[in-house]
Amino acid sequence: MKTIISCALILLVAFTTDAQVRRRGAQAREGKVSGQTVDASQVPESVKSAFAATGATATRWEKHEAKGKKTIVRYVAVYTQDGMRGRARFREDGTAMSSSKYMKAEQLPVAIKSAAEAKAQGQKVMGGEEIKTKKGETYYRVFSRGGGSRTVSVFDANGQPVTKDKMPDDLNESEGEDEGDGN
What we know:
single chain, alpha+beta, Nuclear Transport Factor 2, Chain: A, 2 domains, eight-stranded antiparallel β-sheet, 8 strands, 26% helix
Protein backbone atom coordinates (compact mmCIF):
# COMPACT_ATOMS: atom_id res chain seq x y z
CA MET A 1 0.00 0.00 0.00
CA LYS A 2 2.84 2.38 0.88
CA THR A 3 4.39 1.70 -2.53
CA ILE A 4 1.15 2.60 -4.31
CA ILE A 5 0.81 5.83 -2.31
CA SER A 6 4.47 6.71 -2.96
CA CYS A 7 4.06 6.11 -6.70
CA ALA A 8 0.88 8.20 -6.76
CA LEU A 9 2.62 11.08 -4.98
CA ILE A 10 5.60 10.92 -7.37
CA LEU A 11 3.25 11.03 -10.36
CA LEU A 12 1.29 13.92 -8.85
CA VAL A 13 4.46 15.94 -8.29
CA ALA A 14 5.75 15.13 -11.79
CA PHE A 15 2.49 16.17 -13.47
CA THR A 16 2.17 19.34 -11.38
CA THR A 17 5.77 20.37 -12.05
CA ASP A 18 5.41 19.59 -15.76
CA ALA A 19 2.25 21.73 -15.99
CA GLN A 20 3.96 24.64 -14.22
CA VAL A 21 6.99 24.42 -16.51
CA ARG A 22 4.80 24.30 -19.63
CA ARG A 23 2.74 27.29 -18.45
CA ARG A 24 5.82 29.40 -17.68
CA GLY A 25 7.40 28.31 -20.97
CA ALA A 26 4.30 29.33 -22.93
CA GLN A 27 4.23 32.72 -21.22
CA ALA A 28 7.92 33.25 -21.96
CA ARG A 29 7.49 32.20 -25.62
CA GLU A 30 4.60 34.64 -25.97
CA GLY A 31 6.84 37.32 -24.52
CA LYS A 32 4.39 38.11 -21.74
CA VAL A 33 6.41 37.40 -18.61
CA SER A 34 10.07 36.91 -17.87
CA GLY A 35 11.84 36.73 -14.57
CA GLN A 36 15.36 36.20 -13.40
CA THR A 37 17.44 36.25 -10.26
CA VAL A 38 19.55 39.41 -10.09
CA ASP A 39 22.39 40.58 -7.88
CA ALA A 40 21.44 43.17 -5.25
CA SER A 41 23.68 45.67 -7.06
CA GLN A 42 21.22 45.56 -10.00
CA VAL A 43 18.23 46.50 -7.82
CA PRO A 44 17.36 50.23 -7.74
CA GLU A 45 18.18 51.97 -4.45
CA SER A 46 14.54 53.08 -4.15
CA VAL A 47 13.46 49.42 -4.09
CA LYS A 48 16.16 48.33 -1.63
CA SER A 49 15.31 51.26 0.62
CA ALA A 50 11.58 50.46 0.59
CA PHE A 51 12.30 46.81 1.39
CA ALA A 52 14.76 47.72 4.18
CA ALA A 53 11.89 49.53 5.95
CA THR A 54 10.21 46.13 6.47
CA GLY A 55 13.04 45.01 8.75
CA ALA A 56 13.60 41.80 6.79
CA THR A 57 16.76 40.81 4.91
CA ALA A 58 16.53 39.65 1.31
CA THR A 59 18.04 36.24 0.60
CA ARG A 60 17.51 36.72 -3.13
CA TRP A 61 16.32 39.41 -5.54
CA GLU A 62 14.33 38.78 -8.71
CA LYS A 63 13.50 41.06 -11.61
CA HIS A 64 10.26 40.36 -13.46
CA GLU A 65 9.16 41.97 -16.70
CA ALA A 66 5.66 41.82 -18.14
CA LYS A 67 5.46 42.89 -21.76
CA GLY A 68 2.38 44.26 -23.41
CA LYS A 69 1.73 47.72 -24.82
CA LYS A 70 4.44 48.81 -22.42
CA THR A 71 6.93 46.84 -20.38
CA ILE A 72 6.23 46.70 -16.66
CA VAL A 73 9.18 45.90 -14.42
CA ARG A 74 8.92 44.80 -10.82
CA TYR A 75 11.46 43.63 -8.31
CA VAL A 76 10.82 40.84 -5.84
CA ALA A 77 12.68 40.42 -2.57
CA VAL A 78 12.65 36.81 -1.37
CA TYR A 79 13.25 36.61 2.37
CA THR A 80 12.81 34.56 5.55
CA GLN A 81 11.56 36.28 8.69
CA ASP A 82 10.31 34.75 11.94
CA GLY A 83 10.57 31.26 10.43
CA MET A 84 8.40 32.10 7.42
CA ARG A 85 9.46 32.46 3.82
CA GLY A 86 8.12 35.52 2.07
CA ARG A 87 8.16 37.64 -1.07
CA ALA A 88 7.75 41.41 -1.32
CA ARG A 89 6.99 42.96 -4.72
CA PHE A 90 7.96 46.52 -5.73
CA ARG A 91 7.76 48.79 -8.76
CA GLU A 92 11.01 50.27 -10.07
CA ASP A 93 10.37 53.48 -8.13
CA GLY A 94 10.16 51.60 -4.82
CA THR A 95 6.36 51.61 -4.54
CA ALA A 96 5.21 48.46 -2.72
CA MET A 97 2.86 46.33 -4.83
CA SER A 98 2.10 43.34 -2.62
CA SER A 99 3.71 40.82 -0.31
CA SER A 100 3.24 37.17 0.58
CA LYS A 101 4.22 35.11 3.60
CA TYR A 102 4.06 31.33 3.27
CA MET A 103 2.79 29.50 6.35
CA LYS A 104 2.49 25.95 7.57
CA ALA A 105 -1.00 24.94 8.67
CA GLU A 106 -0.20 25.53 12.34
CA GLN A 107 1.01 29.08 11.56
CA LEU A 108 -2.29 30.17 10.02
CA PRO A 109 -4.57 32.34 12.19
CA VAL A 110 -7.16 30.18 13.98
CA ALA A 111 -10.13 31.83 12.21
CA ILE A 112 -8.56 31.22 8.79
CA LYS A 113 -7.64 27.58 9.48
CA SER A 114 -11.13 26.88 10.91
CA ALA A 115 -12.82 28.45 7.87
CA ALA A 116 -10.57 26.44 5.52
CA GLU A 117 -11.30 23.18 7.35
CA ALA A 118 -15.04 23.85 7.16
CA LYS A 119 -14.86 24.62 3.44
CA ALA A 120 -12.54 21.73 2.53
CA GLN A 121 -14.76 19.13 4.26
CA GLY A 122 -12.58 16.19 5.15
CA GLN A 123 -9.43 17.43 3.47
CA LYS A 124 -6.33 18.26 5.47
CA VAL A 125 -5.19 21.89 5.53
CA MET A 126 -1.58 21.76 4.34
CA GLY A 127 -0.59 25.42 4.64
CA GLY A 128 -1.25 28.79 3.17
CA GLU A 129 -0.15 32.22 2.20
CA GLU A 130 -0.87 35.58 3.80
CA ILE A 131 -1.14 38.18 1.05
CA LYS A 132 -1.04 41.93 1.63
CA THR A 133 -2.28 43.93 -1.35
CA LYS A 134 -1.06 47.32 -2.53
CA LYS A 135 -4.16 48.78 -0.83
CA GLY A 136 -3.07 47.25 2.50
CA GLU A 137 -5.80 44.58 2.54
CA THR A 138 -4.93 41.15 3.94
CA TYR A 139 -6.11 37.89 2.38
CA TYR A 140 -5.23 34.25 2.94
CA ARG A 141 -4.84 31.62 0.23
CA VAL A 142 -5.12 28.17 1.87
CA PHE A 143 -4.13 24.81 0.37
CA SER A 144 -5.94 21.60 1.37
CA ARG A 145 -5.52 18.00 0.19
CA GLY A 146 -7.36 14.76 0.62
CA GLY A 147 -9.14 11.99 -1.23
CA GLY A 148 -6.97 12.48 -4.31
CA SER A 149 -7.87 16.13 -4.76
CA ARG A 150 -6.39 19.50 -3.92
CA THR A 151 -8.36 22.60 -2.95
CA VAL A 152 -7.22 26.21 -2.97
CA SER A 153 -9.46 28.58 -1.01
CA VAL A 154 -9.18 32.32 -0.47
CA PHE A 155 -10.40 34.12 2.65
CA ASP A 156 -10.42 37.73 3.81
CA ALA A 157 -8.76 38.68 7.11
CA ASN A 158 -11.97 37.77 8.99
CA GLY A 159 -12.13 34.24 7.59
CA GLN A 160 -14.90 34.97 5.09
CA PRO A 161 -14.55 33.15 1.73
CA VAL A 162 -13.65 35.34 -1.25
CA THR A 163 -15.11 34.37 -4.63
CA LYS A 164 -13.12 34.71 -7.86
CA ASP A 165 -15.18 37.68 -9.03
CA LYS A 166 -14.38 39.57 -5.79
CA MET A 167 -10.64 38.84 -5.74
CA PRO A 168 -8.24 41.77 -6.11
CA ASP A 169 -5.73 41.46 -8.97
CA ASP A 170 -2.93 41.15 -6.38
CA LEU A 171 -4.19 37.65 -5.54
CA ASN A 172 -3.63 36.49 -9.08
CA GLU A 173 0.02 37.56 -9.20
CA SER A 174 2.53 34.75 -9.24
CA GLU A 175 6.15 34.43 -10.11
CA GLY A 176 5.89 30.67 -10.42
CA GLU A 177 6.78 30.00 -6.79
CA ASP A 178 5.77 26.66 -5.39
CA GLU A 179 2.59 26.61 -3.40
CA GLY A 180 1.42 24.12 -0.89
CA ASP A 181 3.01 23.35 2.43
CA GLY A 182 3.92 26.81 3.62
CA ASN A 183 7.70 26.45 3.36
